[in-house]
Amino acid sequence: MSDTKAGGPGARPTAWVDGRLVAADSPALLVGDRGFQLGDGLFETLRVRRGVAIEIGLHLARLREGLGIMAVPMPLSDGALAAAIAAVVAANAPADAAAADAPSDAAVRVTVSRGAPLGRGLLPTGWRELAPTVVIQAWPHVPVAADVLARGVRAVIATGRRDPAHPLATVKTTSRADHVHAKLEAERAGADDAITLTTDGHVAEATTANVALVVGKRVLTPPLAAGILAGTTRDWLLRPEGAAALGLAAAEAWLMPADLLAADEVLLCSSVAGFLPLVALDGVPIGGGVPGPWSARLRAAREAWIVAASGG
Predict the structure, then answer these.
(1) Measuring CA to CA, how many Å separate 98 from each of 7, 84, 86, 105?
(2) Tens digit of each residue's pLDDT (9 = 90 or more) over 199-218
(3) Could you give all domains of the chain from N- to C-terminal order, each with its CATH number?
């Protein structure tokens, strides 16, 4: 008999779907689910360290705000969502962690779709009464490879533009086709990521990360008005325990691609990957084309904060 227990040899990953733990590679959604059919849903990705969901309050508040904008009900309390996250993380714990009774480190995604109506159309009959679909997945947290941190990442400017006035510009919907297209553009250009600009040419964000730059003792990041996601690591950067604790003055600012190229350093920041040094844009080096000291300092400070937040 093959070992399919979570964490064992040949283990099958486990997902939490509407209150049930199921094999993540088994059928679990109705074909009419709006998340699959229309991208009519929202999601959050967060980091779990030693069983502690980092900044879960910020993530769930952002999720609920987006659900409110899209008129999708959330049937679960924050406490119930936290318990579900803990259950799926435990179910996917590596065998050695389970044996040692050590809480797991993980990357977790919470996805909520409008559900599966019987009829078709953008707002079919009975859409207000639909039961939403809630799915939670967990993967082992894999730190960024040392060689990536040593060489930095390269990006291109995406051809698609972000409209800050769009009502969903700052909502993390499951409609990610534009982000996938931007990532494809980067891959085809031999780069690692793509930076999206606003319709008037200002810097918005990368495909899965916010953007910040360092000039002297200042760190600047685009404002939310640029139509960007209110990232939790970006939020930390702007808080007193973030950049300010290292002697950097952090602020929001409208930035142009030329500002990135003229900066001492440019950083990409996200909840799972942390801070990554961006060393080239459209083939033009940034800061000499090598990672600078602030990317390493901010990355180490953020990691130390996460360690403290998760109990050491």
Answers:
(1) 8, 18, 14, 12
(2) 999 999 999 999 999 999 99
(3) 14-140 (3.30.470.10), 146-309 (3.20.10.10)
